[in-house]
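Single Protein Entry

Contents — chain, fold
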Amino acid sequence: MALEHADVLRAAHLARLGLSEDDAAHYLDDLGRILEMVDQLQALDTEGVAPLAHPLDATQRLRADEVTETDQRDRFQRCAPAVEQGLYLVPRVVE
């Protein structure tokens, strides 16, 4: 895909980026190289290659699901401005 100077300026405008003419020329080269790399990747034969969720064959070590803190709800609700039946009362926001 051929990228032109006007394309870079249009993309910058759509992204609400303030981009000078000099910066646009610099980004034109960078974006051109990125698009060339994407073209190279699209040319690769990926038939029979299974998609991966992660490049490494590793599993996440999980900690035991154990309670580590005691229930302190009553202590926290004592300092709350308004509580009813174990729930915090807050001012109405939507009318």
Notes: The helical segments are 5-14, 21-42, 73-78. The longest strand covers residues 83-84. The mean pLDDT is 90. Strands lie at 83-84, 87-88.
